Amino acid sequence: MSDLLARHRAVMPNWVALYYNEPIEIVGGKGNRVVDGDGKSYLDFFAGILTNMIGYDVPEVREAVERQLATGVVHTSTAYLLRGQVELAEKIARLSGIEDAKVFFTNSGTEANETALLLATYARKSDQVLAMRQSYHGRSFGAVSVTGNRGWKNNSLSPLNVHFLHGTDRRLAQFRGLGDADYIAACVDDLRHVLATAVATDVAALIAEPVQGVGGFTMAPDGLFAAYKEVLDEQGILFISDEVQTGWGRTGSAFFGIHNHGVTPDMLTFAKGLANGFAVGGVVARGDLMDALHAAGLSTFGGNPISMAAANATLDYVLDHDLQANAARTGALIIEGLKAAAGRLPVVGDVRGKGLMFAVELVDPATGEPAPAWAARFMEVTKKAGLLAGKGGLHGNVIRMAPPLTITADEAREGLGIIVGALETVDAEAAS
Ligand SMILES: Cc1ncc(COP(=O)(O)O)c(C=O)c1O
Q: What's residue 2's pLDDT?
């Protein structure tokens, strides 16, 4: 065991899991590749869990941060005007499509979701919230309470009364074999039933990820959230789209994931990739909802000048280079390649994705049951071949991948080749 690993184990929590039998330390990065402490190079198909959104050592981001540092001001406070916050909020408000939108900046996705849940429960004078099964929304009490994955919940303490909906679980026996329209109809029926039976008085909001991140890139069929929203609108129930993983064009077909459903939410939360690795999160909400809170509020570090410099530069880069279109192009190349290979590899239970957010589900070829051991093996094989991927899913058997939005077509083909090669290796081992 390396010295650093031993020291890590001595002082870091056990529940912060490390990837790989021999975990790596990433010590350098350029473009869409990183280098570990042994000098081994990797094509990065996980991007620090979708956070190094436009790759490594991007001059535009570095120079923006250096310009801010050169002013001598790392922090002022929200007691003073913050030009970077105003500029970024203007852009995000416009891109969100939300009417008269206002933005509040935080340091993380968890805090962003806490803020959205506060706005919704306050506006609706209700502690009742709907969330999706298999979801993940963060690690505070509120965010965990709307998380629908037991593997990420330590207890049931909750500031909210939460009911979980179907919509991303069509592998369950009662839904298996249904086409999109029938599945959506069944889910809407269930939503109506929940509203008729399980709740008292008004419900504050539904919070949902358009594509579930930790859940293993499971997703509702396009149109489900529009159908849900029709029902929610009948009762004035608000819709919060958690775009922490799906924002900024990553799904290729829309700038925010929820727009794939033709839905404009009342609030949208974001974090991860916006500042290309600098800490930022936030909520963009209808102005009336945002302004309604009567008590004062601020986030000391939320939207600090350094993060804002990085975030403005990153967002400008995404827009100026039309990285959404690149996500659509390169994502389609990879997903089509994976689907073509899956047909001849019984260890692959499913391939799914949207743009540069794609996943492969590994199963026991004999039973079709989730096979986390084969997912772990895939991780080792791709590591050796020089590609970083991520793991997830309710059963830990899903390989999820999300390269930087800057990935080139050549890099996409290179990564696809490594992934298919690793799947062939794992498939052969599973068959023997
Ligand atoms: C969809 C989603 N929401 C919220 C969060 C929480 O974000 P953070 O870890 O920045 O608190 C995450 C983190 O993985 C996420 O994937």
A: 84
- 213 Cα: distance to centroid of ligand 1 (angstroms): 8
Comparing CA positions, the residue from 345, 426, 333, 357 lying closest to residue 385 is: 426
| Residue where a domain terminates, one of 320, 335, 360 | 320
Is the domain of 329 the same as that of 315? no
Q: Where does the pLDDT of residue 1 fall: very low under 50, low under 70, confident under 90, or very high at 90 and above? A: low
* Mean local confidence (pLDDT), 33-52: 98
Judge if the beta carbon of residue 213 lies within 6 A of ligand 1. yes
Query: What letter does residue 187 receive in the DSSP assignment?
Result: H
Q: Are strands 267-270 and 281-286 parallel, antiparallel or unpaired?
A: antiparallel
Domain that holds residue 199: 63-320
Q: Are 134 and 150 in contact (CB under 8 A)?
A: no
Q: pTM score, two decimals?
A: 0.98
Distance 390 CA to ligand 1 centre (A): 15
Per-residue pLDDT, 167: 97
Any atom of ligand 1 within 6 Å of the Cβ of 149: no
Residue 14 has pLDDT above 90, yes or no: yes
Question: What's the mean pLDDT in 93-111?
Answer: 98
Domain co-membership, 328 together with 316: no
Confidence check: pLDDT of 30 > 90:
yes
CB 315 within 8 Å of CB 88: yes
Alpha carbons 108 and 279: distance in angstroms, whole number: 7
| The two structure tokens encoding residue 213 | 């991140």
